[in-house]
Amino acid sequence: MMVGIVGHEAAKFTPETEAAAKKIIRDLLTPEDAVLVSGGCHLGGIDIWAEEIADELGREKVIFRPEALRWGAPGGYRERNEAIARTSDVVYCIVVKKLPEDFRGRRHTVCYHCGTTTHVKSGGCWTAKKAAQGRWYEV
Fold first, then answer.
1. Residue 61 · residue 90 · CB < 8 Å
2. For a disulfide at 81, which of 49, 90, 98, 127, Cβ 3.0-4.6 Å?
3. What are the E-state strand segments in the chain?
4. Residue ranges per domain, the chain?
5. Could you tell me which residue, 4 or 118, shows the higher pLDDT?
6. Taking 90 as the threshold, does the pLDDT of residue 7 lie above it?
7. Is residue 111's pLDDT more than 80?
8. Which class in CATH covers the domain with range 2-138?
9. Could you tell me if 22 and 47 are in contact, meaning their C-beta atoms sit under 8 angstroms apart?
């Protein structure tokens, strides 16, 4: 089973939401036939935690690292996210309900990928929507 796992960068998590996210990742990768599909985000967070947990569990990995750190560039985030969606049987997007108080990046009142206010905007949401099956976890 090709299990896509995407979501936020590390800076958007508190220690509590990081622990919750890691538990979800571990649960998703527990089946022996699970193969991780993810994007190797250079900012850490869900992608990297999923790789670490896959290694701990001895699971195979298919990682699509972007060649360019821009959305529309050849080999950029869009192509990477499309490859994750295409390769995965199901894509799980793990996102936070709210940002930490000390978060210094951009803040959005709505996730413009899906129109919800129940979680913080994430490119992972776009990827899950593109997948044949997309599911969300909000921590």
1. no
2. 127
3. 2-7, 35-38, 61-63, 90-95, 134-138
4. 2-138
5. 4
6. yes
7. no
8. alpha beta
9. no
